[in-house]
Write a structure and sequence with these properties.
The complex is a heterodimer. Chain A has helices spanning 8-21, 31-35, 38-41, 46-51, 63-71, 77-80, 94-105, 115-126, 132-146, 156-162, 168-171; strands at residues 28-29, 61-62, 112-113, 154-155. By secondary structure, chain A is mainly alpha-helical. Chain B has a seven-stranded mixed sheet. Chain B has a single domain (7-31, 88-94, 101-370), classed as Glycerol-3-phosphate (1)-acyltransferase. Classes of the chains: A mainly alpha, B alpha/beta.
């Protein structure tokens, strides 16, 4: 594939992290295992982030699934060293990072961010500090600005267009110290 | 020309080789592990385009912070043993063990034999002698009527038995700034890493212990020692009543003839790399606080008790099969509560002083997070800060883009 393979040490360390989170010692993580990380539990989007690890209807994630989700946050620089155009797109490409963010909004997975879905995410981030009316008008304005085909919902293409100037690579990557 | 070594020289050469190898093998692994946490504050990152309005990219900040916490977080790592940069030949501290050389493995095997077959029985015997002397000695002294002779003998018994127990752990303790040693009528507070913290301190002075009454051998020791010296033991039911606890401690501290009480305000064992939030109760009693910083040297043994992973017996076994317990104790100048300072601020001030002296990091997190969930108020604060950014200008879509308010 088009990405430099993750180093053996990094896998070992992430496996060590996986096992330290796995309090039940059964080789899988549950949502409670993630909730035990205080910095994640206080993150306004904590629940959505945790959900990203679990497939539809599943409530356990194994190490493979854990790594797959984490792979979205590998820096893109890792890919430039081997430009193989024939392989499948790596999980940490700009497009896949954006797709990951899109899925955090799009709960019902219909490939559109509706007004309601946007409101839900907004509500998670502001808590009780903003009224429904104000939040509603923020959502309306945001959709209006991004919506190009007039269906009052944001498709993935419209999402990508809105974020074309944003440095996705830098904001959605975690770097190890070398 | 081939060199042949005699056995001792070979051992020394292997030891030296293992030390040199540590630098190359384990050091690089350790640093690959650390992630480069982006310290850009939320305000700067989200508002970077000078538009105080919601953008789809606002979630990136929270997303990344969430994933950083999943890969490595500040808190949960404190509840397990410290990762060492170089190996101290104890497998328990070598998470990434990989076979390096035959010589190193042989040295390690010899180490295991020495630790388990020689050191352990010796230490166990010493510990048994120490504990028995403590129980018998304090019971005998406890029979005497209250007098200065009794106090003197009680101190002798406590100190002697403490010293036997420290030998039983092969403890080497370096005390610094002895002129600041806690005085009578004061409160000694220290960071907490292990149940043996108390023995480390009583090796050099006499304290009145504070704690809950236990059953078993510990209970026997507690009942015996309290006859000789006014330790403050609480029943389980009493310890839930904060007012009762504070009242009893206040009475003890008010009596300037009584030994300084020893308290560990973190409330739980932390792995000696950081100091977590202090419970304010000890700082409401009044009186002079004598802070003490305790730092263990991880090269010789891991003193941290991971109570969710090991029970006390397996913990003591691990301690007694380490190379040694080496630690530094810094006595620090006494501190009192300033005017206008409440108990929480005072506690934080003492905590900072201890962290600075011991070279530990300070964390704004509660040691109780080892078992309990984090409070919602932290999340609510983040939500509040983000909301402030969204409606800072009072309206959205302001025509004069780029103007800073206030």
């Amino acid at each position: 594939s088009g990405a430099k393979p993750i180093s053996h040490s990094q896998i070992t360390r992430l496996y060590s992290r996986f096992t330290s989170l796995d309090k039940g010692e059964n080789g899988t993580l549950s949502r409670e295992d993630f909730q035990r990380i205080p910095e994640l539990a206080i993150n306004p989007l904590g629940d959505r982030i945790i959900n990203a690890f679990f497939s539809e209807g599943e409530d356990q994630v194994n190490f493979r699934g854990f790594m797959r989700t984490l792979a979205h946050f590998r820096p893109i620089e890792d890919n430039e060293k081997s430009k193989d155009q024939n392989g499948p797109e790596p999980l940490n490409s700009r497009s896949n990072k954006l797709h990951f963010a899109f899925r955090l909004y799009d709960l019902d997975k219909d490939d559109k961010i509706s007004r309601d879905e946007l409101l839900q995410v907004l509500r998670m981030m502001v808590g009780v500090n903003i009224s429904d009316e104000q939040l509603g008008s923020i959502a309306d304005r945001t959709i209006q600005e991004a919506d190009q085909d007039g269906d009052c919902a944001i498709s993935f293409a419209e999402f990508v267009k809105v974020l074309e100037k944003v440095d996705v690579e830098q904001k959605m990557s975690i770097r190890f110290l070398h | 020309e081939e060199k042949t070594y005699s056995l001792p020289a070979w051992l020394i050469a292997s030891f030296w080789e293992s030390v040199a190898l540590q630098e190359t093998c384990f050091l690089s692994d350790y640093y690959i592990w650390k992630i480069n946490v982006d310290e850009t504050p939320m305000e700067k990152e989200i508002a970077s385009l000078h538009r105080m309005e919601f953008q789809f990219s606002d979630i990136f900040y929270f997303c990344r912070k969430g994933f950083e916490a999943i890969v490595e977080d500040e808190v949960t790592q404190r509840f397990s043993s410290e990762e060492l940069v170089s190996w101290n030949l104890l497998t328990r501290t070598n998470v990434n063990f990989h076979y390096v050389s035959l010589r190193l493995t042989v040295v390690w095997v010899i180490g295991v034999i020495v630790r388990y077959c020689f050191l352990l029985p010796l230490r166990f015997t010493l510990a048994a002698i120490g504990i028995t002397s403590m129980i018998v000695g304090t019971t005998v002294v406890g029979q005497l009527p209250n007098s200065s002779l009794k106090n003197y003998l009680s101190e002798v018994v406590h100190l002697t038995c403490s010293r036997i127990l420290v030998r039983a752990l092969s403890g080497t303790i370096h005390y610094h700034n002895k002129e600041n040693k806690p005085q009578k009528g004061g409160i000694c507070v220290a960071n907490h890493t292990s149940p043996i913290d108390a023995i480390i301190l009583t090796n050099d002075g006499c304290y009145a212990m504070v704690g809950q009454v236990h059953g078993g051998l510990m209970g026997v020791i507690q009942r015996a020692t309290v006859k000789a010296c006014p330790h403050v033991w609480f029943e389980r039911s009493e310890i839930k009543d904060r007012h009762l606890v504070t009242k009893r401690l206040r009475e003890h501290v008010a009596d300037k003839n009584k030994l300084p009480i020893l308290i560990f305000p973190e409330g739980t064992c932390i792995n000696n790399t950081s100091v977590m939030m202090f419970k304010k109760g000890s700082f409401e009693i009044g009186g002079t606080i004598y802070p003490v910083a305790i730092k263990y040297d991880p090269q010789f043994g891991d003193a941290f008790w991971n109570s969710s992973k090991y029970n006390i017996v397996s913990y003591l076994l691990r301690i007694m099969t380490s190379w040694a317990i080496v630690c530094h104790v810094w006595y620090m100048p006494p501190m009192v509560r300033k005017d206008g300072e409440d108990a929480v601020q005072f506690a934080n001030r003492v905590r900072s002083a201890i962290a600075r002296q011991g070279g530990l990091t300070e964390l704004p997190w509660d040691g109780g997070l080892k078992r309990a969930k984090v409070k919602d108020s932290f999340k609510e604060e983040q939500q509040k800060n983000y909301s402030k950014m969204l409606v800072r200008n009072g309206s959205q879509g302001s025509l004069s883009a780029g103007t800073e308010s206030d």
